[in-house]
Amino acid sequence: MSPLMQAGFDDLLSELDAFGRAGRRVSFWWRDDDAVEPTPALARLLDLSDAFGIEVAVAVVPASASTALAPMFANHRHVAVLQHGYAHKNHATPGKPSVECGGARPVEVVLEELAAGRRRLSEMLDGRAEAILAAPWNRIERPVLDHLGEAGFRGASACGPRRAMQGAHRLAIANAHVDPMNWRERRFAGHEKAISSFAGELGARRIGIAEQDEPVGLLTHHLDHDEGLWEFLDGLFRLTIAHPAARWIGVAEAFADPAVGSAQPSAVA
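User: That's the sequence. What structure does it adopt?
Assistant: Structure tokens below.
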């Protein structure tokens, strides 16, 4: 990374250095939403994942997913597949925030739909899809969350600290924490805001405000990336894979069984 580019990551670098001095490491994981069919943007995402050896958990919308995704995923080494709701359709009651995993419908109807989506992805991707729900709009209402295990799911992902979602039928939880998009203008939010978000998450873990062992989740949306965001991801990955206090983990570790997962901060090897 050039000195000029590294300067844009100084706050993140400082936090990683602080972890290193304390003999600790911070874990990151990567989720990308809204996959439906092969596109140049999805191909670029998967190529980026392979180039850095960082697993990306691609959240696929079951109702509209193309069977052409299966061979595309098979050609890449560092991709996991999550379920992105069912149809990414809003069922919120009037005046409430958008939600598919909840809303105005009975819980039983929501769960039946999600289970149907899980079966479709499993068949379409020859069992490759994880039984993990990545919620559209990052919202899973508690009555649905509490019964996801009955619908065959072993994990769930939304946004923010995972402690608010834990305790639901032993579901494993790994959430997103940093979304580098400016959704109001539908473009990259910029280096300063993105790095500030990352540094804030690390700082909260370092001083104990946040759960110290919770992986920091990066959330991307390949279909909405501009060149600035692609360049940011390249710089972020270059910095973090080279830093001894940072490590990228995949779905298997991010969604480890909550009963056996470590409650201690990761130590630098």
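The two ends are 24 Å apart (CA to CA).
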